[in-house]
Amino acid sequence: MNLSIVKTFLLAFGISIMAFSMIFLPKESLEASISGLNMWWEIVFPSLFPFFVTSELLIGFGLVRFVGVLLEPLMRPLFKVPGVGGFVWAMGMATGFPAGAKLTSRLRAEGQLTRIEAERLASFTNSSSPLFIFGAVSVGFFNNPRLGFLLALSHYLGNFFVGISMRFYGTRDIKKVKKKPSSGSLIIQALTALHRTRLKNNKPFGKMIGDAVISSIHTLLMIGGFIILFSVINKLLFHLNITLALAKVMEFILAVFQLPASLSIPLIAGLFEITLGSQMTSQVNTTGLMTQVIVVSFILGFSGFSVQAQVASILAQTDIRFKPFFFARILHGFLAGFFAFIIWKFFSNFFYLKPEQQAVPTIMHLHDTWWDNVFHFIGKAGPLITIISLLIYILIYWSRMRKK
Q1: Is residue 345 domain-resident?
Q2: Which of 154, 257, 382, 397 has its CA 20 to 30 A from that of 297?
Q3: C-alpha to C-alpha distance for 124 and 135, rounded to whole angstroms
Q4: Mind listing the pLDDT tens digit for each residue in 276-301?
Q5: In a domain, 16, yes or no
């Protein structure tokens, strides 16, 4: 039988099962939808929206080209991507998923990246934000803000080495092009690129802001839809006992890495959605903190099918292929877990991670309080920021529709 026909039948069967499950489990589906919606409008939207709008404006005004010229001597030898990749990398780390994919797609659409360069860049510029690692995971789930240093270091180290590994991707497909000799210093070249980009993009300032707001909210609405959808899927899989069946298979894989079987269900949940998987891992009391950290590091690196679906949807708007990104996420998961294991001993002693250690310096307590306050502030202000942003979006969209 044709593989395409088999794929069609499997997809149709899966969607049918999901539809019937939602009909027979309406309460559970509604609870999962509300949970995903709360996560989106309280945390995801307010944390991503300002960065998305700012990055759109930076690209439009040519500041990204300016940074790209300056970072070319660093990014090209390390990762074999243009200097503009440095901006995407920094914004991806600061903002979190899926900012790296959005910016990469935008630069690819403008012709600042080749397809191979875009696929390399997308593979290592999508990561969890420090806010999520420190606030949600360390404070919210483990109630241990100092744990964020270990998780962040292992996560970003893993991402860096994913980028180093991906520099060897697609080397056969790239034709060597002779570079034109550059005139003047690096800063003069960067300023020239900045000026030319601004002149090329001769939109009025108001229109640029409107375009940035509309583009950002379109992307965030799509992200919200995926978060809610995968929240429901995860809940349905659990109630249909599919999660338990997959957990039995996962137990054999965990045994290879000498990890306890009690982490199988949290790991399966994390493969679909990183927030739920990290939360369930933190609640496992039958294993040590180090083991929990290794599993959470893998979950954060793999990112979950929910985030990967968001990225796939963004990349599909260009000719960037999803497969390199998917394999990079698997590599990132294993690298992050490995680094968490390697640096655990140093961090557990230096940052007083073990609960039995009672003599904790005062400065550590101050740090814990600061992160608690930040996380609680975002939880309270997040919905208000989301509502105001959506109202602005509606006003801009309505104004443009009237002009048409």
Answers
A1: yes
A2: 382
A3: 22
A4: 888 888 888 888 888 999 999 999 99
A5: no
